[in-house]
Specification:
Order of helices and strands: EHEHEHHEHEHEHEHEHEHEHEHHEHEHHH
Structural class: alpha/beta
Radius of gyration: 21 Å
Oligomer: single chain
GO biological process, one term: lipopolysaccharide biosynthetic process
Helix content: 40-55%
Strand content: 15-25%
Organism: Candidatus Portnoybacteria bacterium CG10_big_fil_rev_8_21_14_0_10_44_7
CATH topology of the largest domain: Rossmann fold
Number of helices: 17
Protein name: Glycosyl transferase family 1 domain-containing protein
Keywords: Membrane, Transferase, Transmembrane, Transmembrane helix
GO molecular function: glycosyltransferase activity
Distance between the termini: 14 Å
CATH superfamily of the largest domain: Glycogen Phosphorylase B
Length: 378
């Protein structure tokens, strides 16, 4: 079976979807599909010039990447605003349709609502992987798709409330490449390699810092931690980092460092070098409370380190009291207490870390691809 994965993005990218897309294309290959990843031909983002996506994401060259012409107006987004996105997206879809004319027998798989909205007018074998609820073109793509894959039960509930047949939907949470976390290095050796202090307890958060991620609670929680407990935040866009740095400075919080974006290959080493891993969310945003399935959650579980997480329905689909310390969301003091508990109670920390590592096994990318293909062919 030929599977064409359509992704309207640049690769590599600072955003987590790049990792998920590349890992899933590789996983589909290992389940017997002939995979072609189709992306737009766009300007390379700053910092990624010359970087090969296969090497960057530690993925074998098991599929080809086809680039389609588009009007890359994203570079003018500060001038054009929303027109930059729509111009790029619609022009990519236009030229994509011409490319797909000779691919009628292929299965079309995508996370992109705009492309799929138009493709589904002409192609019946379409699968829409839904990560959030959107407005323009979203519901048309959902209703015309042959099958729908969602990353959380919360998303499935929302779609069925809107009249989408339950049998058309598969809940497939995000995942992890377990092999990427088979690291022999001990924490001390990893810290030396990553220039992290050896004499402090290291609390790590990785990923983006959008407001709905709730990372501001970790910044404020740092104020309740001791001086030898260091919060390390890896990732985030420059504007989000500036905002959180300003928040920390305003509260005179000094036991927190922002390392910015790091190549994905370094992330497993940062996680393994940590004493505690933090997963924040917020009840103030429905995408965080009900819809999300963060890649970092599965990576944390694979890293065999204790997890302290906001107690949200979206996280509860995977986490529980047996594999994580769950704390009240939007409460920095409660988050700090959870972190202190993970650092002080070694027996508990080791217990939940071992259980998390066991619980994450069903969420390997290859197993996810196997489940999705079985659902599509059922």
């Amino acid at each position: 079976m030929k599977l064409i994965y359509i992704a309207n993005t640049t690769l590599p990218t600072k955003r987590a979807h790049g990792l998920q897309i590349m890992k899933m294309c590789d996983a589909f290959f290992w389940q017997g599909a002939v995979v072609e990843l189709v992306t737009p031909k766009r300007f390379t983002p700053a910092g990624f010039g010359g970087k090969d996506p296969f090497a960057y994401y530690a993925v074998g060259r098991n599929f080809k990447i086809k680039k389609i012409f588009c009007l890359d107006l994203i570079v003018l987004d500060k001038v054009l605003g929303a027109l930059a996105f729509w111009g790029q997206s619609l022009s990519f879809t236009f030229f994509l349709l011409f490319y797909l004319l000779g691919q009628k027998k292929a299965l079309i798989y995508s996370r992109d609502r705009v492309s799929l909205f138009f493709i589904s007018l002409f192609f019946k074998k379409t699968v829409f992987e839904v990560h959030k609820i959107s407005r323009w073109f979203f519901w048309g793509a959902v209703r015309r798709a042959k099958k729908i894959v969602v990353i959380s039960q919360g998303l499935r509930d929302k779609l069925t409330q809107q009249g989408i047949a339950p049998e058309k939907i598969l809940v497939a949470p995000d995942g992890v490449a377990l092999a990427d976390f088979n690291l022999a290095a001990e924490s001390a050796a990893g810290r030396q390699k990553l220039a992290l202090p050896l004499d402090k307890k290291i609390i790590v958060y990785t990923g983006h810092l959008y407001s709905w991620k709730g990372a501001d609670n970790l910044v404020l929680a740092a104020a309740y931690l001791s001086g030898n407990q260091q919060v390390v935040i890896i990732g985030g866009l420059p504007q989000d980092i500036r905002q959180l740095k300003k928040m920390a400075a305003g509260k005179a919080i000094k036991n927190i460092v922002f390392l910015g974006h790091r190549d994905w290959a370094q992330i497993p080493y940062f996680l393994r070098a940590a004493d505690c891993l933090v997963l924040t969310g917020t009840k103030k945003a429905v995408v965080s409370e009900k819809y999300t399935s963060p890649l970092k959650m599965f990576e944390y579980m694979a890293a065999q380190k204790p997890i302290v997480a906001s107690d949200l329905p979206s996280f509860r689909e995977i986490l529980n009291e047996g594999n994580a310390i769950l704390v009240e969301p939007d409460n920095p003091r409660a988050l700090a207490m959870g972190i202190k508990r993970a650092l002080a109670d070694q027996a508990l920390a080791e217990k939940i870390a071992r259980q998390a590592q066991k619980d994450v096994w069903p969420y390997d990318w290859r197993q996810r691809a196997k489940n999705i293909l079985a659902f599509i062919h059922a």
